[in-house]
From TrEMBL:
CC per GO annotation: nucleus
Gene3D superfamilies: Cyclic phosphodiesterase
Entry's transmembrane regions: none
Boundaries of every A-kinase anchor protein 7-like phosphoesterase domain copy: 60-140, 144-214
Protein name per Swiss-Prot or TrEMBL: A-kinase anchor protein 7-like phosphoesterase domain-containing protein
GO biological process: DNA alkylation repair; regulation of DNA-templated transcription
Pfam family, one: AKAP7_NLS
Amino acid sequence: MLWFYCVYDRSDDNHVKTDLFKDSSKQNLSLGNHGGSSTDHPSPHVSKGKQIVQVYRELYTHFISFPLAIHPELKEKVETFRNSILGDNKDKKPLKFQSSLDEMGIENRMFISPNCLHLTVVMLRLVNKEAVDAAQDILKVELVSYTIIDAFANAGFAGRDAKLHLKLHVTLMNTTYRRDERKSNTFDAREIHKEFGGKDWGEYLIREAQISKRF
């Protein structure tokens, strides 16, 4: 799995800086689309273990996120990233691996729309309107609590266990949205990592947090 982790600069909580991190597995390339399609039942073409994971993921109905699609500069960079990989960028020299996209398991539908860019904070299960309303109230409290707990932990007045360690990420590619569900849920991102691993995605102001419905 490849994640573009968005790491808080704690001296200024309104800004994030993005870096590329390489994990050992290969399902997502992250810098999440609300878009794509989901299935009501596990696919008969996947293993029992994968079906369990799929059902588990479908328990989540919403997620807390920081919207990033409000930044035209970032949207343009993500669009250029997509076009460069797929060979749609006429102003750039073709990448060496473009002729091997099929073998790598990469297709157009895997790329997330720049209009849906967001930082995913936490996944939620909100089964009715009452739960959504309660989550909105909790969101306000938790954001304040996060700041308080972190400040006291840094001052040494609270234990390390009190600190909340977020792994913020923005998904750029996801095999979930492939047209053919029978295909493997992995893809080879090694060449993409070589080409874009050192890319600077910039710093962006976070103006608000949102509760978003998954599908």
